[in-house]
C-alpha cells in the first residue's frame, strides 16, 4: 500500500479525535503516505499533525454561508488537487454528503464508509464501494480507529497517538515566572451543554486559593460577557483578548490545567497532553469523552448538571493531589 486518503471535514474536536487513525495506519504500513481532506476552516489543525503527509482543503463552510465566486473557484481548484494522485484506499470517517462527495471525486476504486444506519446522512452511501463493520459501541473516538483498522486489515493497538506540533508563538502566552494558569472553556455551541456560571465561579475561587491564575477565552460577544461575569468574581482572573485558533492552541499548550465543557478546544487540550477536565451536561461522556490515566477525565452523566464537587475531585485527580474542602452550599443548585 502506497497512499491512503482520510476524509474528515469538520469540526475541531472531531478532527482532533480522528487524528490517531493516521498514526495507526502508519504503524501498520510503514512508508505509506496518508493524506487528509478537511474544510479550510480546520485545515491548520490538520497541518499541526506530524503524521499527515498532505492536507487537502476547500472553503466549503464559508461558501455555504456567503456564496462568493472566489470561494467557488477555490473549491474547483481543490478538486484538481484532490485528483492529483490515485489512492489505494479512501477512508471516509465522517459519513455525510460533503465527505461522501469528496470521497467520490478522489481517484480510487476502493472507497470505504459507514453502514447506512451509522451514517450522519444516509444518502452519503452512494459514494462507497465498501463498508466498515457495525459501528462499535462505546467511545466514538476509539470506534473510528477500529473502523479504519477493519477497512485496511490491521488490529488497533495501544493508546491514541496525536503527533501534534504547534507553531512557535511570536511571544510566550504567559510570563515564565507567573502563577500556573488554568483555562476555563465555559462557552459551548449549544445552551443545553452549558455549565452554570455560579459553578465556574466556585471552581475559579477554589483554584485561585490554590495559587492558580484563571484565564477565560471567548469567541463571541455573548461569550465574552459571560467570561467577564466570571472574572469579576474570581480574584486574579483574566478575560483573554480575541484570539485565532492557533493562538488559542498555543495558549492551551502553555496552561497547567484546562477545564471546559464538551467543546473542540478541550478535546485539543487532551490531545496536547494537558491536564484536562471535560464537563458533560447534555452529551454522552461515554461516547464523546476524554480519558487518560491521571491526566484527562470526563465528568457528568450527560443528563444532569455535575456538581462543583465533581469538578474539584476531577481536578484533584488529574493533578494527583487531594485537598480538604469545606462543604459547598452552592451544590444545592446543581
From TrEMBL:
Topology of this chain in the membrane: Peripheral membrane protein
Localization in the cell: Cell inner membrane
Pathway(s) where this gene product acts: Bacterial outer membrane biogenesis; LPS core biosynthesis
Glycosyltransferase recorded as keyword: yes
GO terms for biological process, alphabetical: lipopolysaccharide core region biosynthetic process
Coiled coil (residue ranges): none
Catalytic activity as recorded in UniProt: an alpha-Kdo-(2->4)-alpha-Kdo-(2->6)-lipid A + ADP-L-glycero-beta-D-manno-heptose = an L-alpha-D-Hep-(1->5)-[alpha-Kdo-(2->4)]-alpha-Kdo-(2->6)-lipid A + ADP + H(+)
GO terms under cellular component: cytosol; plasma membrane
Key words of the record: Cell inner membrane, Cell membrane, Glycosyltransferase, Lipopolysaccharide biosynthesis, Membrane, Transferase
Name by which UniProt lists this protein: Lipopolysaccharide heptosyltransferase 1
Organism for this UniProt entry: Paraburkholderia fynbosensis
Lineage: Bacteria, Pseudomonadati, Pseudomonadota, Betaproteobacteria, Burkholderiales
Amino acid at each position: 500500500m502506497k497512499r491512503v486518503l482520510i476524509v474528515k471535514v469538520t469540526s475541531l474536536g472531531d478532527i482532533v479525535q480522528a487524528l490517531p487513525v493516521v498514526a495507526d495506519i502508519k504503524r501498520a504500513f510503514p512508508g505509506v503516505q496518508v493524506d487528509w481532506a478537511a474544510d479550510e476552516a480546520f485545515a491548520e489543525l490538520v497541518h499541526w499533525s506530524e503524521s499527515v503527509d498532505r492536507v487537502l482543503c476547500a472553503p466549503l463552510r464559508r461558501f455555504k454561508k456567503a456564496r462568493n465566486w472566489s470561494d467557488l473557484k477555490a473549491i474547483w481548484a481543490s478538486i484538481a488537487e484532490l485528483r492529483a494522485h490515485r489512492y489505494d484506499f479512501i477512508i471516509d470517517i465522517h459519513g455525510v454528503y460533503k465527505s461522501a462527495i469528496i470521497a467520490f471525486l478522489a481517484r480510487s476504486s476502493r472507497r470505504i464508509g459507514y453502514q447506512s444506519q451509522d451514517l450522519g446522512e444516509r444518502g452519503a452511501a452512494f459514494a462507497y464501494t465498501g463498508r466498515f463493520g457495525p459501528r462499535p459501541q462505546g467511545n466514538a473516538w476509539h470506534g473510528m480507529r477500529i473502523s479504519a483498522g477493519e477497512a485496511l486489515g490491521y488490529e488497533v493497538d495501544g493508546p491514541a497517538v496525536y503527533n501534534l506540533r504547534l507553531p512557535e508563538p511570536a511571544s510566550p502566552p504567559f510570563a515564565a515566572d507567573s502563577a500556573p494558569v488554568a483555562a476555563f472553556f465555559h462557552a459551548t455551541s449549544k445552551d443545553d451543554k452549558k455549565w452554570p456560571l455560579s459553578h465556574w465561579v466556585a471552581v475559579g475561587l477554589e483554584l485561585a486559593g490554590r495559587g492558580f491564575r484563571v484565564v477565560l477565552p471567548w469567541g463571541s460577544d455573548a461569550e465574552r460577557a459571560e467570561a467577564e461575569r466570571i472574572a469579576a468574581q474570581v480574584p486574579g482572573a483574566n478575560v483573554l483578548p480575541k484570539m485565532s485558533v492557533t493562538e488559542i492552541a498555543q495558549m492551551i499548550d502553555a496552561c497547567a490545567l484546562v477545564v471546559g465543557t464538551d467543546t473542540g478546544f478541550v478535546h485539543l487540550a487532551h490531545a496536547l497532553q494537558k491536564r484536562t477536565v471535560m464537563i458533560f451536561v447534555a452529551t454522552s461522556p461515554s461516547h464523546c469523552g476524554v480519558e487518560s490515566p491521571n491526566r484527562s477525565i470526563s465528568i457528568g452523566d450527560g443528563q444532569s448538571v455535575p456538581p462543583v464537587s465533581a469538578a474539584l475531585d476531577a481536578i484533584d485527580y488529574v493533578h494527583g493531589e487531594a485537598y480538604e474542602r469545606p462543604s459547598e452550599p452552592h451544590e444545592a443548585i446543581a
